[in-house]
Amino acid sequence: MIQDMTDVIIVASLIIAACSLAVNIAAGLGERKRPFSLLRLTGVPVGVLRRIITLESALPLLIVAAVSIVVGLVAAALYLHSQVGIAFRIPGSPTGQLSSVGSVHRSRSLPPRSRFSTG
Q: In the 8-state DSSP scheme, what is residue 110?
């Protein structure tokens, strides 16, 4: 029961963090509307502006999301181990292992493919 509650708390905190980042990105774009308009008036192509906006928005979002996920999972694992005494498992995974680890292991156990196929 405690494990299920911790899974819900972890997922809820990730959703709250993602919403907070999205609001900050939207606010930042609203504040920079005038500079983007001036860049457009000076002749910067729309495609370049889209790439600038994407990089300015998505790159920090991805970096902060990755760091937040790692810190949150480590904090949850430390809390569960020290305070509750139960083993940590990744939310949504019945065994606590990522499914990609198993697929990498299976792909390495298969014989190598021939470079030349016979049809």
A: S
Q: Report the phi/psi class of residue 90: left, alpha or beta, with left for phi > 0 and alpha for psi in -120 to 50.
A: beta
Query: Could you identify the residue written with the tokens 């139960």?
Result: 86
CB atoms within 10 A of CB 22: 12
Encode pLDDT of 52-76 as tens digits. Answer: 888 887 888 788 888 988 898 888 8
pTM: 0.47
Euclidean distance between CA atoms 64 and 52, whole angstroms = 18
The total number of residues written for the chain in this structure: 119
Q: Which two tokens stand for residue 19?
A: 């919403």
Q: What is the DSSP letter of 97?
A: S
98 with 90: CB under 8 angstroms? yes
Look at residue 114 and give its three-state secondary structure. coil
Give the CA distances from residue 59 to residues 11, 25, 111, in Å, rounded to whole numbers and listed in that order: 22, 11, 39
pLDDT of residue 101: 45
The two tokens of residue 5 are 């509650």
